[in-house]
Write a sequence for this structure.
């Protein structure tokens, strides 16, 4: 099976390649694609170096699947060209997520929506993926009515430029800035651009994508997304009001039984999920600080942590590809 990775030299593209290797995805021919400035470089996959090629050259080689992590504008331009050639695109950008003709997929939740006719499949936003992974088993049992989420997001979500900014600031060096402000020892309550309603694009992604993935427009969600000087993953403080009453021990059991979710919730021994300690380079979504909201009935507080480059991006995309192969949809 020929597989292309578009954006193969970027942070998420590099992680996609790593995860294809780790999960032993059945690749017979590997095609790394990047922008013209990367031409002449090579990318190593399973010990072999492959030259970086242009999108046109990749399309001519007719891969079965193309994993895209090259930004929204690139995806809008190139994904239809790949799809027109019969190549199934799994896109990590925001370009296609809310397109009503495209599927937005977290395999553990809604892979069943996929068909052989889906040639452009959207990978959700990283902060949305970890939220719905924790929300789904509880929503099925108790029916979520309203969710309030605040995120504490790693600089890796912005990309290499942001990681470099943090490391430069920490070392006392000047350099290119990914953010309008210093990030080291700081918290920036803006991720993506502001919209007319005063929310950022990232916040509204969480609102709209959650409803689409969960297939439930009745869920009310409000979000505040914050960038912090952290590596290893994103964290979320989640407050969920349910339609039905819940039992805390049953909540823990439901979460622990959910595929891809691990509960770390032992406050007596100071055990709770942390990005660097637990999520970093792991594929599971970690949930802890499970407790009732004592100000309101039928309302639960959770702390949710996940590696945003893995389950929040690359792993989820590879899992979609695995599902397509398993179901013979490509």
């Amino acid at each position: 099976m020929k597989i292309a990775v578009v954006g193969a030299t970027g942070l998420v593209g590099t992680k996609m390649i790593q995860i294809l290797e780790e999960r032993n995805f059945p690749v017979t021919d590997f095609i790394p694609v990047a922008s013209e400035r990367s031409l002449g470089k090579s990318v190593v996959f399973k010990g072999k170096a492959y030259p970086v090629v242009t999108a046109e050259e990749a399309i001519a080689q007719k891969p079965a699947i193309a994993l895209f992590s090259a930004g929204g504008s690139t995806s809008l331009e190139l994904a239809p060209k790949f799809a027109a050639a019969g190549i199934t695109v799994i896109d990590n950008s925001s370009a296609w997520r809310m397109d009503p003709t495209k599927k937005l997929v977290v395999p553990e939740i809604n892979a069943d929506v996929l068909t052989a006719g889906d040639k452009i499949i959207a990978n959700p936003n990283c902060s949305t993926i970890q939220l719905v992974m924790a929300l789904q088993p509880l929503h099925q049992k108790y029916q979520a009515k309203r969710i309030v989420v605040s995120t504490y997001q790693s600089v890796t979500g912005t990309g290499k430029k942001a990681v470099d900014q943090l490391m430069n600031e920490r070392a006392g060096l000047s350099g290119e800035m990914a953010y309008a402000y210093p990030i080291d020892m700081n918290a920036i309550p803006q991720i993506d651009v502001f919209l007319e309603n005063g929310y950022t694009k990232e916040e509204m992604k969480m609102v709209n994508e959650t409803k689409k993935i969960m297939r439930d427009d009745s869920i009310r969600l409000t979000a505040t997304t914050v960038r912090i000087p952290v590596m290893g993953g994103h964290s979320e403080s989640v407050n969920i009001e349910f339609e039905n009453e819940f039992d805390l021990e049953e909540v823990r059991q439901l979460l622990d039984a959910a595929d891809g979710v691990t509960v770390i919730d032992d406050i007596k021994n100071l055990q709770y999920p942390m990005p660097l300690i637990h999520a970093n380079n792991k594929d599971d979504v970690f949930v802890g600080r499970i407790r009732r909201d004592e100000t309101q009935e039928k309302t639960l507080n959770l702390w949710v942590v996940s590696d945003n480059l893995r389950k929040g991006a690359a792993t989820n995309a590879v899992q979609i590809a695995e599902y397509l192969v398993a179901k013979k949809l490509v």
The first helix runs from residue 11 to 22. The chain has ten helices and 14 strands.
